[in-house]
């Protein structure tokens, strides 16, 4: 009886959501601002309440095409991002929020620069938690509660993606956009050249940002079974593309730092070791999320190898320091003994012969 009631409530809720979507489309269509109206309609169609499927490729393409419909102005791209953000922040539905985030993620990885720039400079300049979903919660039912975890996680990932892109100075590569393996190889070689001539501090700073991205992935919700839902599956698939891009960026910098290992000071070695340790701590959850795709032995082998080399070098440097300190202390003790001997004249190194007072003549 209880199950039947829950099913009935869910059907009523779905019906209400469908009516709400249709009403929103009608209102957007009747708007007197025709260009903005067209933008709102495209966004609404891509972010319906239906959980059965993610936005279709056609719906996503229609949103991304908004920028190309007006090459002389940022008006439409700005309206597009504003509309997506407004819908994201107004909705109480985890499904709608997840679809808004999925659409925004597509803007980041596949959208034209006019759209990307509008998102990157959205009110708080793409800063930490600028999507403001850290407290999002849909209490409609248990499934919605679980989806809420995915909404918060996904929002954090998109924020981290934009942060990484800003620190790197370019947007993360999207491997699917390349038409051939040779193109991918050339792209990786071009990216690798970005590490040449960079300071150790610059390389470590960017490695730190990339590691933070992996840490956000590793915070994936426990409800991994929700990947059976097509929307969640497509979200994870798109995140997987970013993950592989981040792996390549990390590998380039780790290989460069490995080549410089002999010339690093102890602070730099310690920082590098701390980063690879943090990467290793992410491994279990990442492998669980992407199954075999996250395993990629070469990446994890490199991480382990650099950690071992770094720990060994750190131990050697600290060992040398200890030897120098012990030797310095021994020399200081010896000097202190000589200088405090009451039977030595200043600068004298040989002891003064002692006088036997037993045979002294008293007058």
UniProtKB/TrEMBL annotation:
<protein>
    <recommendedName>
        <fullName>ENTH domain-containing protein</fullName>
    </recommendedName>
</protein>
<keyword id="KW-0254">Endocytosis</keyword>
<dbReference type="InterPro" id="IPR013809">
    <property type="entry name" value="ENTH"/>
</dbReference>
<keyword id="KW-0472">Membrane</keyword>
<dbReference type="InterPro" id="IPR011417">
    <property type="entry name" value="ANTH_dom"/>
</dbReference>
<dbReference type="InterPro" id="IPR045192">
    <property type="entry name" value="AP180-like"/>
</dbReference>
<keyword id="KW-0168">Coated pit</keyword>
<dbReference type="InterPro" id="IPR008942">
    <property type="entry name" value="ENTH_VHS"/>
</dbReference>
<keyword id="KW-0968">Cytoplasmic vesicle</keyword>
<dbReference type="Pfam" id="PF07651">
    <property type="entry name" value="ANTH"/>
</dbReference>
<dbReference type="InterPro" id="IPR048050">
    <property type="entry name" value="ANTH_N_plant"/>
</dbReference>
<feature type="domain" description="ENTH">
    <location>
        <begin position="31"/>
        <end position="172"/>
    </location>
</feature>
<keyword id="KW-0333">Golgi apparatus</keyword>
